[in-house]
Amino acid sequence: MVETVKLIIDTDPGVDDAMAIFYAAAAPEIELLGLTSIFGNVTVEMATRNALRLREAAGLAVPVAQGAQVPRVLPPFKPSFHVHGDEGFGDIPAKTPKGRAIDESAAAFLCRMAREHAGELVLCPIGPLTNIAAAIDLDPDFIRNVKRIVLMGGSYREGGNITPHAEANIYHDPHAAEVVFASGAHVEMVGLDVTHRILCRPEDFADMASAAPKLGGMLQDMSHFYLKFYESVGKLDGCSLHDPAAVIACTHPELFTAEAVPITVSCDADTSGATLKAEDSRAATQVYTAVDAAAVKALFMQRIQQLP
Ligand code: BDR
Ligand code: CA
Questions:
Q1: Which strands form 64-65's sheet, in the order they lie side by side?
Q2: Quick one: which of 216, 220, 236, 295 has the fewest CB in 10 Å?
């Protein structure tokens, strides 16, 4: 029997978020317990709608809880429509999903699930960390109840992608990220040092679509806009598997190399969102600094190709 990981994905879907959620749907080691939405690539209302659409498309029977609308301290950012398209899924038009979100906030849902699955729940945030900081505020036992927080975000030696210093998820709520890194929780940072090494090209999306016409086809439809954005910034080798890498790290950490480094987040205007080595006595974060990119990519492709 495959040993499963009980997982919640906190997400701002988003093209690579969709790839991550479809991967989770296909992975036999993942027992998905829910999705929580967050602003970022799109508004939080759109993130909730998109999470519900992905749930429906993938036939997942999991709750979706809506999260924060705005960052903890900073004024709201404009969504990243230029990266992920006006609705979050590249050129795919908006469609109203059948289901709706539960009547519980993302933070309250996270605290309840962490309590009910104390010591077992793995949390995979793939958007700004506002909901996770809110859950830490809400329940003093939250960080003890959660087994691992494996987040897509940050950059240790790689430099940023939204500014020269910062990765987008951390940049969009540096104050929340600082709360998470300083909390003492078991945090693993799957940042640009590894996600920039794992690339997906147009021919990979074509392979996904031919093996998995419904869901692989949906990813291929989304990919055109996303790949064009990458080309527009001079990245001609394909798009990064940012969010899928974090989900894969939840079940296959052996495919990565991690360094134990205490991390702090700059909230200064000129370097906002930079993830830096902390000089205080906070707990170390497992910072992913190297990856077997071919193995992660192969696992991703293999799993997506098993979908309908
Ligand atoms: C992260 O930012 C978002 O645009 C992606 O979905 C990913 O979570 C990469 O920096
Ligand atoms: Ca994301």
A1: 64-65, 30-37, 5-11, 121-125, 146-152, 187-190, 285-291, 256-261
A2: 236
